Amino acid sequence: MSSPVKVQACDACRRRKVKCIFPHPCKQCRSAGLVCRTSLQRQRKGRQGRTANILNELRSKDIEQSLDHDIRNLSPPPRVLGLEGLVGTTPHSPQAAGRCHFLRTPGLLGYDLVNSCSNYFFSRMRGTVPILQPDSFRKQADLAGTCAHAYCLVAAFCAFVVTQTGFHVDYEYPGYSHHLSMEELRTSLIAEATEARKHIDPVMDPVRQSIIIAFLLYGCHIGLGNQRHAYYFLREATTLYTASALESQTPSVPMDEDDPSSEARLFWLLVISERAHAIRRHRPITLQVTSDSPQLEEDPCSDKSHAGFRCLVNLYRPFDETFLSQWNGTTSAYSIESLSQLQERIQSAVPSNLDLPDIIMADLRVSQQWLRIMIWQLSTTAGFLSTSPSHECMDFRYPLQIAEDLCLATWKLSKQSMETHGIGLIEKLFEVACTLIDVMACLSVAGLRSSGFKLGPRDYLKHLCTLIHDLPGGRRRYLPLLLTKVHQTLSSMVEPITLHLNLQRQPPFASSIPEDPSQSVHTSKIPVAENEINSSSAGLTPESVSRNWIDNNFNYADMSRIGDKTPEIDEAFLQYSNQVS
Q1: Local structure of residue 505 (DSSP, 8 states)
Q2: Helix (H) or strand (E) holding 439
């Protein structure tokens, strides 16, 4: 007589300590959505390791086994030069999937894309965004296949380069039959980095990587114009830095093993970004500069990128909490002397004979003139401006001098050097142009034109409009706003500007004052004065506007316009934007 067959409970029911109801797959596994299987080896009872939920543990094992099965059935991807974790391995690492269940987009971070972004960043932006070194980034890229932090960092890095700079690449994404447009690639990378970030703990080691990831996402959203999202990630980066500094009382953040000065550069980059954003958006700041703050090393042998970054630090360092409290209107404890000294300090922060690459000089010069405009606006609010000031910077016409300095600086720079700095540089140009328009509205018709061989306010405004029109992102986002400002404040300049930019005139921009047909339109890099006839004189160095000439053509009664809120884009200008883009 045969012995009865011994029926063994499935592994999942034994692990959960519940009755296994046969036949297989059992009722318990079907209701819980588990794979019902029975192994010959007896399993240990009870909870194992750090797992707090048995159902989640079992489901994660099922996911890992399913991924292993899919991976074995896939044809092996081609091996490429480095980046072991990104290409040449699977996008769904079982180790990473078992921990956070984050399913990476297969093939999105290909070697060509990561390598192109890396080469672009380290050849162009190392002096203004010195948060990563080539060797340390390569190590993170090699770990991206198995480390969630590294994968998130690489995704955010590529998203930052594609979104914030003038970088362009024809990228063939495996999931599509066509080349991804830059907009599609940008959207995919930001979504991937944001989703990956949800599955890492930002306050756990490595904290430095979490700070860099938050900063890179801040730059991405600045490039997209998402100000609230950008401010959120900026505050996260500064908060993580502050929290790590308070906890350790030693060097606040683990330093890059390849570069001991990386901590200081990270701190000052956050200081610069936070203060620039605070001035633009009237926000508070969290990072304070004290005697214990990391200091940049004065190394005469360091490369030019480090020298440029020190100048950038010197530009933003004076804009502390005292200035911002005045800027935001919470206090009024400022004087003509203090603001005049601040103007002098900003002008001396970037020496006139400074010899640095165009990319670094573009950021320095545009930021310098923008900060001068911000101080002048605060002087306007305080009522310090005068027709006969004791300090030049307290003159009503001071923005004309700032606009001249900005134009002279940018005429010497290549378009590519300004493209690298993205939408942040365009916004600074836009704000300088808006202030210039306000001051030009106080000039008579004769005062708007150039005099002799000298360039005048019209030439400066045309040049700034050209920069905003030509730089990526400016034509669609800021040019309609600027033309709205011109139409509402200085309508006589609408037609000359639209002709200068070769734009089709729209009804909202129709000017009631016809332009002199004898005036020519110039599109050269250095514009010729409007009433200049001899084209051979185009190479002459423009001279500053004559003070006596301006005095005779300035209408002080119209100064009340200065300080008006920049107009919003209405429906008409949204339509205009779509037509010209």
Answers
A1: P
A2: helix 422-440
| Nearest-angstrom CA–CA distance, 340 and 378 | 11
| Chain centroid to CA 328 | 23
Q: What angle do CA 375, 277, 422 make, to 5 degrees?
A: 105
Tell me: the pLDDT tens digits for 445-476?
666 666 666 788 999 999 999 999 999 889 98
SS3 assignment, position 453: coil
Residue 429 lies inside a defined structural domain of this protein: yes
Q: Please say which residue of 216, 248, 281 terminates a domain.
A: 281
Considering the domain architecture, whether residues 345 and 486 belong to the same structural domain is answered as no
Is the CB of residue 133 less than 8 Å from the CB of residue 256?
A: yes
160: closest CA among 206, 128, 202?
Answer: 128
pTM value? 0.72
pLDDT tens per residue across span 510-550: 333 333 333 333 333 333 333 332 333 333 333 343 344 34
**Please, what sign has the CA dihedral across residues 289, 292, 293, 297?**
positive
Structure tokens, 370: 């923008």
| Among 89-103, 137-151, 258-272, the range of highest mean pLDDT | 137-151
Type of residue found at 110:
G
Which residues contact residue 356 at a Cβ distance below 8 angstroms, ignoring those fewer than 6 apart?
Answer: 127, 304, 307, 308, 364
Q: Do 438 and 340 belong together in one domain? A: no
Which amino acid belongs to residue 24?
Answer: H
Within this chain, do residues 131 and 233 fall inside the same structural domain, yes or no?
yes
Helices (H) and strands (E) in the chain, counts: 25, 2
């002080």: which residue's tokens?
A: 556
* Tokens representing residue 383 in the block: 């009522």
Nearest Cα to Cα of residue 460 among 469, 450, 474, 472: 450
The sign one gets for the Cα dihedral 164, 167, 172, 177 is: positive
Helix (H, G, I), strand (E, B) or coil at 146: coil
Give the pLDDT of residue 45.
53
Judge whether 65 lies within some domain: no
Range of the domain at 342: 304-395
Domains contained in the chain, number: 3
- For the segment 310-338, what is each residue's pLDDT rounded down to a tens digit? 999 999 999 999 999 999 988 877 889 99
Q: How far apart are CA 421 and CA 223, in angstroms?
A: 10
70 belongs to a structural domain? no
SS3 37: coil
CA distance from start to end of the chain: 89
Of the residues 228, 250, 281, which one is the last residue of a structural domain?
281
| Domain assignment present for 294 | no
- Between CA 404 and CA 547 the distance in angstroms is 13
- Smallest CA-to-CA distance from 472 within 157, 168, 214 is with 168
